[in-house]
Structures are given as C-alpha cells and as structure tokens.
Amino acid sequence: xxxxxxxxxxxxxxxxxxxxxxxGTLIEPNPSNMCVACLRTEVDITEGIPKQATIHFCRGxxxxxxxxxEWIPAALESRELxxxxxxxLKGLHRVKLVDASFVWTEPHSKRIRxxxxxxxxxxxxxxxxxxxxxxxxxxxxxxxxxxxxEAKDYWRASVQVRQKAINKKTFYYLEQLILKxxxxxxxxxxxxxxxGLDFFYANEAAARKxxxxxxxxxxxxxxxxxxxxxxxxxxxxxxYKFTYSVEIVPISxxxxxxxxxxxTHQLGGINPIALVYKTTSALHLIDVASGQIAEVSATVYWRxxxxxxxxxxxxxxxxxxxxxxMREHERxxxxxxGALSYKHVVADVWLVKASDLGVNDNPIHSRTHLxxxxxxxxxxxxxxxxxxxxxDPNYDKLAQDSIPDIILVKKFYGTERTARRRARMxxxxxxxxxxxxxxxxxxxxxxxxxxxEEDPEMRxxxxxxxxxxxxxxxxxxxxxxxxPQVTLEEMLEDxxxxxxxxxxxxx
Length: 507
Hints:
Layout (H helix, E strand, L loop, with lengths): L1 H12 L4 E2 L6 E2 L8 H7 L9 E7 L4 E4 L3 E4 L5 H9 L8 E8 L7 E11 L5 E14 L3 H11 L2 E6 L6 H13 L7 E5 L2 E6 L2 H14 L2 E13 L4 E12 L7 E3 L2 H6 L6 E7 L2 E5 L6 E5 H6 L4 E3 L5 E10 L2 H4 L15 E7 L10 E5 L10 E5 L9 H4 L10 E6 L4 H7 L2 E2 L15 H12 L1 H4 L4 E3 L24 E2 L6 H8 L1
Parallel strand pairs: 3-8, 9-13, 25-26
Antiparallel strand pairs: 1-2, 3-4, 4-5, 6-7, 7-8, 9-11, 10-11, 12-13, 14-15, 14-18, 15-16, 16-17, 19-20, 19-22, 20-21, 22-23, 24-25
C-alpha cells in the first residue's frame, strides 16, 4: 500500500512544467511557452471585428433592414435578430464562433448588446479563446413600402407639367414666373422629371389654382383625373386623389413654324412660314418678309396643331454685308390682311455665312424684321431654311419660290460667353428647396440669360437680383459697350439675414 501511494505521487510530480517566457509563471508547456494572461496581451483575435455597429429599424412596420434591401420582422432577443446582428459584423469569419447571446438592456434605450465567445489559432499553433461584447445602435429609417404608403396619404392632388420640346427655355421662364408671383407657396413638394415638373398639393383647390396660373401665363391645355382611395358608405364620404396633366405647346421662342393652310386664312393670310418672336399666354408670330403679326392662342393651336421646323439649336451665324430698310408703302403691297408690327423694321439684307467669310463672299439676299437693330458689318443668328432637310406635311405643300433662304432671328454680339458671364452683375433665384437648379451650367440656361439681357420687355415679368458676390467694375474693357446689359435700376436687393447681424440687434 505504501509503495502504491508513493508511485502515484511520483507520477504526478514527474509531469514536465515550464516557466512563462514573459512573467515567469509555472505553466504547462504550449507552443508559445506563454501563460494565458500574457498571450492575451500579445495577441487580440478580435482585432478585425468591430465593437460597435448600426442596424436600421422602420417604426411604421417594425421591421429591420437586412442588407442590401430586404426588410425582415424580428422580435427583441429573438433568433432572427441575433442572426441579423451577426451578419452585420465584418471579420467574424476569421475566427470560430463558439457562443452568442444577448446582454439585457432597456427596451427603449435603442441599444442591443450581444456577447460573443470566439476562439482562434495564434502563433505556434496555440488555441486562444476570448469573450467580448458588441453594441448595436438602432437608427430609424422608413422602408420603401411605408414610404410609398405615406406619400399616398400625404398629398391629395398633383399637377404634372409637360412640354415635348427640344430645349428647356420655356421651363426656365416658367420657373421665374412661379417665383415672381409666388405660385409655389402652397406646394408640398416639387419633383423635376424628364420633360417637365410635378407639383404636389394637400387639396384639390390649391392644385386647381396652380393650373389656372399656368393657363394664364403660357399656352397650354390640361386634363383632370381622379382615383378613389377610400370611402365610407355609411356617411357617404369619398377620399379621392386628383391629378391634373398640363401640356404646354411644344414650341418655344425663336422657333420657326409652318402653319396649316386653313390657319393662315384665319390669321389674315399670314405667310405659312413664320417666326415665334414672343411667348405669353399665346404664341406671337411674325412674317419676317412683311412684318405681319398674329397671335395663336392655346385653343386655336390645339384645334390646328403644327410643329416647329427650325429650333434654336440650329442657329447659324451670318455677317451682314448690306442692309436697306423698306419704305412704308412697299410693306402694304403684301397680300396679308392682318396687323403689321411697327416695332420691327422690315429690310432687304445681304448676308454671308460667317464660316464662309473670305472663302465664298457671294452674298445671299433675304428679308428680315430686324432692320432697326442691324447695320452693315454686324453679326446675326438665323436659320438656313432653304438648305435644311425639313420633314413636315405642311412644309411639303408649299411652293419652293415662297420659301425664304434665310430667316434671321436676332442680332449676335460676337462676345465670348465667358466674358458676358463675368460681366453679369445679377442673378436669378431658383426653387432651392424643392428643385435643384434646373441645369444652370448648360448652354441653354446661358442662352436664356442672354435673351433676358437683350429683351427688356421680357425682364419686366421676372425678378432680377443683385449678385453680392461680384463687385461692380470701375473700368473694364472685357465687354463691348454695345452689348445689352441689365441696368442697376432693374436689380432687386436680395434679403440676407446673417447670424452676426441678428446678434447685434438682440444685444
């Protein structure tokens, strides 16, 4: 018996032990020859795992977002929620997950804590196990289904404004009219889309007021529709959503149109090929050869629709070689029975294309309504109608001798666009909150600003503000003095309330 006990004690004491290479503690041998405490200070197996993360929760349907775009229901401390939390942790695949459980938190704290137990192989083949806690912060985000439901219940009427035109000058002008008359004050939101804008309102009366404003400032037509959302058969209450579809005439300023034969007779025998020189609640046309003018209202246009055969994007620069205004009795021999414009002077003009100057100096004769602004040596923008490939049924019915070779639109000042932009001491406001500025860096918008500078009558319908970021130059030779500009008397002072000024007032 004594020998057996002695042999057992000798077997226990004969087990090999080593000292820890860091702290000297007697430990059993392992590949790293370090105790557990020292090994944890040297190696952190949870280094690539975040200790804090965010999960998104929809308060409308009480679902959680599972990336990339799936929303799942999950109760607190449920398996589904634990699985969602583990999927949010990056780097968890580098270690082996042994255990995961929730740590209790207040239900309204918007915090979820998960205790994880992982182990991994470290240097020398040693296996290290570690326990740590990850905190998840709950943030609120509305899911797509609740967002659509909320949008349907939020607005009751919408106005969809569309124009099937090539350029957006009409919408730039419409934006300024809306701002000047404050027609957008009752809108809940404005959404720009292709070929137009969408306005949203809380009731039908506000939408109807917007439609009346649009029909008063631009030639357009509209259609109304309504959709039944809900109804109460006991109290006879019906809940509708109203939609107004407004279509603007697809013709803009400085476009050349070809009128139907029946419409030309109604307009006093005006030339079928006419120029749109102004757009208000009607299209204002002028025959450049005789100066005869006519107005086409929205009702007349939709009864006899026509298209533009030349658009502002097709303008060509010409050089005026010679010009000779027509006498008054010469203008009255034309067969038209309509009114004549005495703001314009009809003249015979001889032109050379700017690109052919010095190569082909044979002038082309034409008639223009710009005899009061053009002189020999000036540049003008116009359409080469005779050389254009036009596909229009009304144009095909015309005799070739009645088609003008060139139709001039406006005088061209030849100044670089960058120089005019630097000299522009004014600015326009935009629908900042509802619409991101409708492409203010493109050429169409710059053309619209140049049209404002050249047309004082058009500026009367728009609020122009002084640009405080630019200083008025004392003496500048960058811009030709003949280039029209907006005067300081026409500019309004923009109201800017700074925090420092308000502080001084209250002090």
